[in-house]
Amino acid sequence: MTTTPLHGDSHPDGPKTENDGKQSVGLKKQIGLVSACAIIIGNIIGSGIFVSPKGVLENASSVGLSLIVWAITGAITAIGALCYAELGVTIPKSGGDYSYVKDVFGEVAGFLRLWIAVLVIYPTNQAVIALTFSNYILQPLFPSCFPPDTSLRILAAVCLLVLTWVNCSSVNWATRVQDVCTAGKLLALCLIIVMGLVQICKGHYFWLEPKHAFTTQQDYDMGRVALAFLQGSFAYGGWNFLNYVTEELIDPYRNLPLAIFISIPVVTFVYVFANVAYVTAMSPTELINSNAVAVLFGQRVMGVMSWIMPISVAISTFGGVNGSLLTSSRLFFAGAREGHLPHLFAMIHTNRCTPIPALLFTCLSTLLMLCTSDMYTLINYVGFINYFFYGVTVAGQIVLRIRQPDLKRPIKVSLVWPVVYLLFWVYLLVFSLYSEPVVCGIALAIMLTGIPVYLLCVYWESKPKGFNNAIGAVTHLCQKVCMVVYPCEEEEEAADGEAVEN
Description:
It is a single chain. By secondary structure, the chain is mostly helical. The chain has one domain (29-338, 358-432): Amino acid/polyamine transporter I. It is 71% helix and 2% strand. It has 20 helices and 4 strands. The strands form 2 sheets. The chain has a two-stranded antiparallel sheet with strand order 1-2. Strands 3-4 form a two-stranded antiparallel ribbon. Strand 1 and strand 2 (22-23) form a beta hairpin. The radius of gyration is 23 Å and the shape is globular.
């Protein structure tokens, strides 16, 4: 199968220019302030608020401290987002923090960021959301005990396979699934917060009173509090997704920071009050012993209408898996464009214009993550490694200020904020390593496996002819099986036309 490689002006993230009489198609600046806020809020609010409360409360040891953890995590998220806003308009490239780390710290650091995202972050995130979906579907069928692990894994795998098929089949189908699931997400959260306020008005606020809120069954431990922050940070994951579409923002110098100022406080408010609502209907012990807190909450406060809650959360988490599959292809494309991933991952189906190889790879890696059904261990994996690279990226902001002080920065935040973020970052990583050395150590070890892979596959350019022929043969075989090619100008124009019609 003949393929047309992506070069310069012809890639989908480049500007629309004319070169040698040919017109390239690029992404347009069509995302305004409202859409930017929707991207941030929609990507942050997913499964986290329905699964992380247990982990946060268990490690924080008291209701009062757990609510403080949720609020501080929101504040730290806002600071990190502001630092990313400066980087986003200073280095206006697709790929988000992968591009920033690569430009500031070099090819190897950028590759390791991509490597860990491909192997750990996206697959783990999708596995956690799929397992949350399974928990909320099956928990009503097992009211007096936890659902069997095997059942959880099988249903999570079915969810993942169905959504991979949807995303491979049609971008329009995937976006329609996302629209429906977003409605379910908002319904569930609105119900939880409103019913929580009703509970407070009825006088059910025992665990919110200061003398009870900070009651603990064990002493506070700095390491466990760090794990509470990791669990909470999972629920705030997705705050940096707007940086993946900086090139498409209308007036990014105004709308990028403004969207952050609006969206992060809204999400923080929703998360804090959702957790307030939970403890109006159940004790801390009951919350910790439940893997589906929203189901238990619905059973306690909604009576015969309690079935609405598991259905709403299941729809929400179903959409969370779908949204993660949708966004992962952009990172795969950015990595393949830089030569850090096989070119196969930048290919799309000849008729459907969907990134089938990238979707199949992330599906397979997520299925491997489902070998464990312990969501909270998986959250510690992804939380630790995510925060590790968030800190590296924010440190890059300071390095760039020192290295290129005169570089044009349309958005320039005070260096106080990246310093505050990095101080919190050091605390979080040090005490997380102390509390969970095996989990965090394995995450770091997986990241470091990227070094020999980089040396072999990227740095070593004079590979034997037989090696290149073998890679080429595998690539062409996969092209024929998946019916995919590199995006060309005609296909991109057709895809744009279809999108406009729909």
